[in-house]
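During the second year of the project, the team shifted from modelling isolated chains to modelling whole assemblies. The rationale, set out in the original proposal, was that interfaces cannot be judged from single-chain predictions alone. As a representative example for this report, we include one of the complexes processed in the last quarter. Its constituent sequences, exactly as entered into the pipeline, are reproduced here:
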Amino acid sequence: MEEILSSIEFQMSLLLFIALAGYLLASRINQSAVIGEILVGLVVGPSLLGLITYTDFVRSIATMGAIILLFVIGFEFNLEDILNLRYLFIALVGVIIPWAGGYGLALLFGYPAPGAIFVGTALTATSIAITANVLKEIGRLQTGAAKAIIGAAVIDDILSLLALSLSGSLVAGTISALSIGVVLLKAFLFLGLGGYIGLKYISAFLEKLDNQPIGQKYPEFIFIFAMMIAFLYAMCAELVGLSAIVGGFIAGVSMCGVCLRHSRSIKEGAEYLYIIFASIFFVSLGIIADFKAMTPELMIFLGALTLVAIATKVAGCGIPARLAGMSTRDSLIVGFGMSPRGEVAMIVALIGLGQGIIDQGIYVVLVLMSLLTTVITPIVYRNWLYREDLASDAG
Amino acid sequence: MEEILSSIEFQMSLLLFIALAGYLLASRINQSAVIGEILVGLVVGPSLLGLITYTDFVRSIATMGAIILLFVIGFEFNLEDILNLRYLFIALVGVIIPWAGGYGLALLFGYPAPGAIFVGTALTATSIAITANVLKEIGRLQTGAAKAIIGAAVIDDILSLLALSLSGSLVAGTISALSIGVVLLKAFLFLGLGGYIGLKYISAFLEKLDNQPIGQKYPEFIFIFAMMIAFLYAMCAELVGLSAIVGGFIAGVSMCGVCLRHSRSIKEGAEYLYIIFASIFFVSLGIIADFKAMTPELMIFLGALTLVAIATKVAGCGIPARLAGMSTRDSLIVGFGMSPRGEVAMIVALIGLGQGIIDQGIYVVLVLMSLLTTVITPIVYRNWLYREDLASDAG
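Output from the structure prediction step:
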């Protein structure tokens, strides 16, 4: 029995069952499918029912899901859409203010400075997975606000990475202009080279393959090739210290213009993979959070930190967006869209825990803060900022 | 660096890269893509280059791949196509003769009786994954011979399961009519009930969902549901002691008539999953085999056992097929089609090793025999039995 419960078949069917339950719940409460999936994941996970735990298999599949998710999102963007000085401005202020907010709040709650530095760093990260998925769901990926969010989030990822390596150095007292420069250089090299090679060579190569005997004989060849590139880019992103999903995204952006005549569609195939694996990724976000480790004091800290996390991103990204000429509503969309911390903050928390700089309590708080900020964006979008759009779409 | 090499991104991109190399090799030597994938897997695996090992992640993904593979194959069959007394006859003789051949050969080579019983049992199993895939590749899944192979292989799986539990009991000396009856009953109950519920209720339920608000709101809902059923059936098959892939197959058969109007296509989606994951399954077959453990004596035993394995299936399935009225060529197609032992024999070997009944040497021989029988069928099909068909298809 034990053996069956740990089998791939059982875990896959359970994860997909949870995802389906999430859809039903989301449909009932009229929220994004993502919210339903996270909530049901929370219910069946260690927090409540304990039916499923965050096993290595779940982690592997969820990682794949997040990469495929951003790969699919990337298909809807051009590189020029994202590279923009305004977005740099939004991202920069949107990293500094949350960092200061998290650091200050942690000190206020009496945590030592090294731990507070990590709390601040966890607040800098933006995970675009959720926001991009909600925008995709409601058909608003091609708006100016969406482009600003994606563009700023990619830059944000670089800045968070910088903040992470800075906080390590700050804690260890070995900070230097050189170390900052190396981190920045690697990240920009990856983005620049990856985008350039992808757009200039890989796209052209795929189109060429499509007309070669190998592409005509095996219509699935190019699809396998494209997915390999997606994982390869994800790996390279990790190698330079960015999060893997940024690599998946850049791979998707690179291939968005590929036009195939004989082969299976890359976009369609990636979307089917996304249906299965991104669902599991969202479910896993619920599973990873374990409420049981919480004490009343930590609950208060969690509440305050979550408020600070959202307020500092809404202000830190929304105000620069407004200053850059966007409308108030679009600025709010950008602000709330940048709020989800997702798996990026969880990774920061994990590094802090591993280095002994934060304890188990703060670790759980950071994971749950990350989850809460992630849950709030789709709710705010559907019930406030995009409410009228959705009503007129449905009419 | 170590961390990156064990990351999901690296493993996925490497596995897909190997699959692509397999396609190129297969195209160059004019063989099935499966053969190319297995061979390249062998080259990069522990046997030669040692670039990739059979990690838990590879095993998980390969298991998923095998289930999805048979799920997709199942889509092309009706239950009535497979349930046929002729196929029972082919399967029955095709289990008894290989068992006797393997048992006799192992005794001849001086192995003790308990080990010889397991060698015989390993020779009873048929893995339809490879044969079905080759028939799909060359567009011959809808022929009478293909139906006989699939039908007999499903029954064969039940008989092999019976043989496995019998050999355990034989070695332990606790064999009884009751234990045989229980094994058979569970297997037939699963096939009967699974097929009946699938065809009668699940198909109808999916079509009903397609017209409900949830199906119309989320076009991906039914696809997730169908994949959940596939893994659930695979799990149930394992629970009753059949191999998981038989469950995936029955799930596919159950849904082959489902007609959806609003939702994403189950078949198309499953095929995209299959492109990625079945490729990885085939690559993994090459990775799992480790030539390095072989000694000259074991090499001779391996050669003899592989010949016996193929000869006994070709005779044991081919002669009954001929007697049942099939043409000589079709009977040979059935005989060679039933030869691959695939992962089923590897599982038998693993059980024998785990119980201490066979040693590491025989274990490796059984794994490699399994691989060799698997490699031979596509070669025989393409270069002999289906040679003229392929030539006229190409013309």
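Chain A has a mean pLDDT of 88. The radius of gyration of chain A is 21 Å.
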